[in-house]
Specification:
The protein has twelve helices and 16 strands. It is α+β, with helices and mostly antiparallel strands. Strands 1, 2, 3, 4, 5, 6, 14, 15 and 16 form a nine-stranded mixed β-sheet that branches. Strands 7, 9, 10, 12 and 13 form a five-stranded antiparallel β-sheet that branches. Strands 8-11 form a two-stranded antiparallel sheet. α1 runs antiparallel to α3, α3 packs across α12 and α8 runs antiparallel to α9. The protein binds zinc ion (ZN). Zinc ion binds next to loops.
């Protein structure tokens, strides 16, 4: 059994025209914008025309499928909102592939004894913080947050939702109970370079990496760049530079091949060309699939920074602004996906996801599995985000067979 790639392609292209901007070629469908809601209505019409039931919950999540939803539903999904100037595959792929899988099963008269449903989640991309629809389904929202959340332009979530005839408090009623679900499956583009570079066709995702963020201050003494001899300086930049060189060693000694450490934002004070920097303020973002490894890596960063501070006569402080534990996918479901990929004969690897996805909240509720296809040159969140149609087809076929196998295996 194979999906109809031509139909999937034409659906994806049609969806990409909603919120399309001629000027930069990007898709603009931020959560609860007019274009986002137009896309949701379009999706509901498309699902209805294909013979499925559909409804929108209080969070703006659009569901489509057939059968009861009280027990053992196999749910497919992803999101259809986008970042500003986004691409046509991020999120949209998983939703349109879900519809394609349902239509294919229907055409092959597969008895959907286990109810099969799909969801296009709301506000995944972070206009108001991200994964709002998935959090609503997982029962993670609270009234205080719903009332106080706002976007970068200070538009409140409750007002943005009201403008679309949605009541923010109704998002609290969108929660599902664990017994309603048997499994959740998501197909998504990788949004990174690994599959494309390694000429692979499918990524079987083992989970979403955990991530911590620090803001570090190295404080020395601002001095005249001409009069202060090199050996009498407390140069904060030198401390930062030394730390940068330690990252490779820290990962080799304390991390794994899935560890990532990034210094992404740096500020030198006072920041004048003729002044020795008296302070360096920078971020450290660390990731791994294992929380124990994250702790070891964090502790190694701390030790390295305090040794470096001593060497350069600096004061060292840091603030941990976030710590999110890794979110592993279901191992039985991951294995089941891997078996389908092997039977289909596609080239694949098991891999972590460095980006967040709806899957991480659904995995708190049920067995969750995530499938990646290659992103050309690893590009995403940009107008030139692209995935080849043959990879789209393979990804949808993996989703199709994973759904079929899940309806048989998981939970029996
Ligand atoms: Zn996405």
């Amino acid at each position: 059994m194979q999906v109809n790639c031509e139909r999937l392609k034409s659906n994806l292209i049609e969806l990409s025209k909603i919120g399309y901007n001629e000027a930069d070629g990007g898709v603009y469908r931020p959560g609860y914008s007019d274009a986002d809601m137009q896309a949701r209505r379009w999706l509901q019409e498309r699902a209805q025309a294909a013979g499925f039931e559909t409804f929108m919950d209080g969070a703006g999540n659009v569901f489509f499928g057939r059968g009861k939803r009280d027990k053992d539903v196999v749910l497919m999904g992803s999101h259809i909102d986008s970042v500003p100037a986004g691409g046509m595959f991020d999120g949209a792929l998983g939703v349109m592939a879900a519809l394609e899988v349902m239509q294919t099963l229907d055409e092959h008269n597969v008895d959907l004894a286990t109810p099969l449903w799909a969801v296009a989640t709301a506000e995944e991309e972070g206009r108001f913080g991200g994964m709002l629809g998935a959090q609503a389904i997982a029962g993670k929202l609270n009234p205080e947050w719903l009332m106080s959340a706002h976007d970068a332009d200070n538009v409140y979530l409750k007002d943005a939702m009201a403008a679309q005839n949605l009541d923010a408090m109704a998002a609290l009623e969108a929660a599902w109970q664990p017994e309603q679900l048997k499994a959740y499956l998501e197909l998504h583009i990788e949004q990174g370079p690994v599959l494309f570079q390694e000429n692979l066709q499918i990524g079987v995702v083992e989970g979403i990496s955990g991530v911590f963020k620090w803001i570090v201050h190295l404080k020395g003494k601002a001095d005249h760049a001409g009069t202060a001899p090199m050996d009498m300086r407390s140069d904060a930049f030198m401390g930062l530079a030394d730390f940068a060189h330690e990252i490779e060693r820290i990962i080799a000694e304390n991390g794994t091949d899935k560890t990532r450490i990034t210094v992404g934002k740096v500020e030198l004070k006072p920041g004048y060309p003729h002044t020795v920097p008296g302070e360096a303020v920078f971020t450290i973002v660390g990731r791994d699939m294992d929380e124990g490894v994250m702790q070891e890596v964090a502790s190694a960063c701390r030790k390295a920074l305090s040794a470096i501070a001593r060497k350069h006569r600096l004061m060292f402080e840091y603030e941990q602004t976030s710590w999110l534990a890794p979110s592993p996918c279901s191992e039985p479901l991951t294995q089941l996906i891997e078996e389908q990929v092997q039977q289909l004969g596609y080239r694949y690897t098991r891999m972590p996801s460095g980006a967040g996805h709806d899957t991480q909240f659904l995995s708190e509720l049920t067995e969750a599995g995530l499938i990646f296809i290659p992103s050309v040159n690893g590009v995403s969140h940009a107008p030139d985000e692209w995935s080849h149609w043959h990879d789209v087809e393979m990804g949808a076929n993996v989703l199709l067979h994973a759904v079929l196998a899940t309806m048989k295996d998981i939970g029996n």
